[in-house]
From TrEMBL:
GO terms for molecular function: proton-transporting ATP synthase activity, rotational mechanism. It is found in: Cell membrane; Membrane. The lineage of its organism: Bacteria, Bacillati, Bacillota, Bacilli, Bacillales. This is ATP synthase subunit delta. InterPro entries: ATP_synth_OSCP/delta_N_sf, ATPase_OSCP/d_CS, ATPase_OSCP/dsu. The keyword Repeat does not apply.
Amino acid sequence: MSKYSVAKRYAAALFSVAKDQNVVEEVNQDLQEIAKVINENRDFLALLTNPKFSSERKKEILSDLFKEANPILLNTLKLLVDKKRIRDLAAIAEAFKTLTAEAQGTAEATVYSTRELTEEEKKGISASFAKLVGKETLNITNVIDPKVIGGVRVQIGNIIFDNTVASKLENLRRTLVG
């Protein structure tokens, strides 16, 4: 079974429990922060995956460090330690974030541009492109990419809308060269 399908299953289960208790947004925020901490600190991940430490000791460490986190999430982290799936936490966090966005009628989008977009521009892009993918709004992450030259490239999931000068020049080059 692929790592992604495992992550989706854990995320779906966590989402279901969080939704039943009406704490989806709280769990999502905590999960994103914890995944960021674990991913950025390779030594911590190494400790959580080290077979020299018992599962009980690893769960104690998680309980001490993340005692302010939602109990549902803390129990999920402990389950991941027991099942030796803590390495999948980043993928689970991403899948949970997607489920949360879908439940709210939003989608995650990455917009590549030559400069930082203003809030007004982000709102305009969100309004225009959200309709194309059947969502109400987009949560936009702006990435500055000088290779764009001009225009924007919008990526929503695996859909890419490329209206950049660089892509137009490449298309022109292909047409002229043959």
